[in-house]
Design brief:
Blueprint: H1 8-29, H2 38-46, H3 48-79, E1 80-81, H4 85-91, H5 100-111, H6 116-125, H7 140-165, H8 168-176, H9 181-210, H10 213-217, H11 223-233, H12 237-260, E2 280-281, H13 284-315, H14 323-357, H15 360-370, H16 377-403, H17 416-438, H18 443-451, H19 456-467, H20 469-485, H21 488-493, H22 501-510, H23 514-541
Parallel strand pairs: 1-2
């Protein structure tokens, strides 16, 4: 490529892509390094098989659960009429505001031996300890249940969109050919929605693999808990990087499976008859079943845990609520705000640069940047710490030579490295949001701006930015909420004596102070509701 083709925006995209890929490359370079160390030998002989099996079972259980619930609820609320449907179609996304680790804390307190459920059973039947069996929520099946309850909306949203957008004429044709509702669903609707469902399940599984708080609290050994243990308990960053590379291999395998599962199949809409179909009216027992199917995930995934959190926060809550809580909230809001601002600015420049250049390189660089969301926070944390720590050491050595004193750790000693890790993780969210909105602006507006004498920067500032204001705000809000909930990277990379609402909730829950953890957890859930309000309003307007 000639140097003339490397515009400033393309150079920015290249720099951002290199910085975004650095953590993954850093982890990958340690895959075979020190493979015969005592730490790695110990891990491979003791807990590594558990890491692999538990991770596989988590993926199988969560993938199956979210697929069944997400598709069933999307089909019912999209293609049928029954009492409460209009409420369910937007309320079913509310569990996305509830982080899985918060769910784990709430249900542990609710279902443990001294919790209200078992206490009520003992009081009602006169049972004593050992007289009855009760399932242990702090287990692998319990972890699967937590993930399914909070992550099924990913599949629900994508499947619902597919059911709404796919050709209604095909369903009408299927019915004229004598197909009943069930046969039309399995023969027409489900195959048409297959790419969206697969994409939703892939997103869910990547979120599951990235989780640390839930599996650590439930004592389920997975790669994320192993990475944290190898880094902090065993002090071996090479072993942590090797585990991180294996976890990254799981993520890449998911992406490959999702892509190859489509094969050469295409799912195009070949008719213009794409209006929403009139929903089939359900009554009697069928209506009751539809209400139950839609109510259960909403009840278990949001209403019950939110109610329990609110009750605990009001009756007991955090004993340090006050100045300490304000400091935690300030830290969380500061990190989330800085990351959101930088992410939206970079995403706008990348999307606009790709629009101007229209080159394969620009699109490829943006895709590379967007892959960061598929990389678990624990992997990114390890991948950032290894090179940034070396850079910190180098800077400290030369700082002494240049200025005569040791400044300490300039990057890892503050929040700079942590924000870098956040950006690698969430930049794809902002980029996808901005790109999709920028694509809706007709290129003729660019031509009109140039004919009026506006340059590229002026066109972006005076034409595109005002039109993208709503999308930029949405992107910032999504990044803000993601950072507020992010736990693995924050635990690994936060400076000393620097806590957030997420780390406070995890620390208190780990000490079995579940009621005290409710205050910080409830704040995280409340913030998570903000983007869901906008999504819910959009869903409510989708049939109008």
């Amino acid at each position: 490529m000639r140097a003339a083709h490397l515009s400033p925006l393309l150079l920015i995209a290249l720099t951002v892509a290199l910085l975004a890929g650095l953590p993954v490359a850093s982890v990958g370079l340690n895959l075979f390094a020190g493979g015969t160390s005592e730490t790695w030998t110990h891990l491979s002989q003791t807990v590594l098989p558990d890491y692999i099996l538990n991770t596989l079972w988590l993926c199988i259980g969560v993938g199956t659960g979210v697929g069944l619930i997400g598709v069933a609820t999307a089909w019912l609320t999209t293609m049928h009429e029954f009492p409460g449907r209009r409420i369910f179609e937007w309320a079913l996304v509310l569990p996305m505001a509830m982080p899985a680790y918060v769910m784990a804390y709430v249900y542990t307190d609710f279902l443990q031996f001294v919790g209200p459920v078992q206490a009520a059973l003992r009081e009602s039947f006169g049972w004593q300890h050992g007289d009855y069996w009760f399932p242990d929520v702090r287990s692998l099946p319990g972890a699967v249940l937590m993930f399914v309850c909070v992550l099924y909306p990913y599949v629900y949203l994508l499947a619902r969109s597919a059911f709404l957008e796919r050709a209604s004429g095909m369903l009408e044709a299927a019915r004229t050919l004598g197909m009943g509702p069930w046969r039309a669903f399995f023969s027409v609707s489900l195959p048409l929605a297959r790419p969206a469902i697969a994409a939703g399940i892939a997103l869910v599984l990547m979120e599951t693999l990235a989780d640390y708080g839930t599996v650590a609290y439930f004592a389920v050994n997975t790669f994320t808990t192993g990475i944290y243990r190898a880094w902090f308990s065993l002090g071996d960053r090479v072993a942590a990087a090797q585990l991180a590379s294996m976890l990254l291999g799981f993520v890449l395998l998911l992406l490959v499976i999702e892509r190859t599962s489509r094969g050469r199949a295409r799912y195009h809409n070949t008719t213009g008859r794409n209006r929403p179909m009139a929903g089939a009216h359900l009554s009697g027992l069928h209506a009751v079943l539809a209400i139950v199917v839609c109510s259960l995930p909403l009840l278990l995934g949001f209403i019950l845990p939110a109610t329990l959190l609110l009750k605990m926060a009001l009756t007991e809550g955090d004993a340090q609520f006050g100045e300490r809580f304000v400091m935690l909230a300030r830290n969380s809001f500061m990190l989330a705000s800085i990351t959101a601002g930088i992410a939206v600015l970079i995403a706008l420049l990348l999307a606009y640069g790709a629009r101007l250049s229209k080159s394969t390189l620009a699109r490829a660089l943006n895709r590379l940047v967007g892959l960061g969301y598929a990389v678990p926070g624990a992997v990114i944390a390890v991948g950032v710490l290894i090179p940034v720590t070396r850079l910190d050491t180098w800077l400290a050595e030369y700082w002494v030579i240049w200025f005569g004193y040791n400044p300490g750790l300039l990057l890892t000693g503050g929040i700079a490295a942590l924000i870098y890790a956040y950006l690698v993780r969430v930049l794809g969210v902002a980029l996808h949001t901005v790109e999709s909105s920028l694509a809706k602006i007709t290129p003729s507006m660019d031509d009109a701006a140039r004919s009026l004498g506006l340059g590229q920067s002026e066109t972006l500032r005076r034409v595109h930015a005002p039109m993208l204001r709503g999308s930029l705000l949405t992107a910032a809000l999504l990044v803000f909420v993601d950072v507020m909930k992010e736990l693995p990277a924050t635990l690994v990379m936060r400076p000393f004596n620097f806590d957030t609402l997420a780390t406070q909730a995890y620390t208190l829950a780990s000490d079995e102070r579940l009621a005290e953890a409710s205050t910080a957890s409830l704040a995280i859930v409340a913030v998570g509701l903000l983007p869901l309000i906008a999504i819910s309003r959009q869903i409510s307007r989708s049939r109008k």
